[in-house]
Amino acid sequence: MDSPGAMRCPLCNEVVTSVATRPFCSDRCRSADLGRWLDGSYRIAGDPVDPAVELDREVFPDCAASSDGAKESTCD
Ligand SMILES: [Zn+2]
């Protein structure tokens, strides 16, 4: 049923079928996840990182390190 490489919603574990809502399965889950971040209850504790995020960091290492604002110009 599921393809091995299918992206799954980090919130409800449903297979993500819409590119528009990635990495979540729906706007509902995306909004819920945002709410969890804002609420401060969301913790990264060894959970599998979204493969798309990992890929971005490898392709744009300068952007990943730009949280200090020093290299913003390279991330355009
Ligand atoms: Zn979901």
Give the name of the CATH architecture. 2-Layer Sandwich
Q: What is the number of E strands?
A: 0
CATH fold-level assignment: Erythroid Transcription Factor GATA-1, Chain A
Radius of gyration: 14 Å
- The proportion of residues in beta strands is under 5%
Structural class: mainly alpha
* Shape, per Cα inertia axes: globular
Mean pLDDT: 74
Number of domains: 1
> What distance separates the N and C termini?
39 Å
Explain this structure.
The protein is mainly alpha-helical and 76 residues long. The protein has one domain: Erythroid Transcription Factor GATA-1, Chain A (2-Layer Sandwich). 34% of the residues lie in helices and 0% in strands. The protein contains 3 helices and no strands. It has helices at 27-39, 51-59, 61-64. It binds zinc ion (ZN). Residues 9, 11-12, 14, 24-26, 29 line the site of zinc ion.
Secondary-structure blueprint of this entry?
Layout: H1 27-39, H2 51-59, H3 61-64
The structure holds zinc ion.
Zinc ion binds next to loops.
What can be said about this structure in brief?
By secondary structure, this protein is mainly alpha-helical.
What attributes does this structure have?
76 residues; mainly alpha; Erythroid Transcription Factor GATA-1, Chain A; 3 helices; 34% helix; 0% strand; globular; binds zinc ion
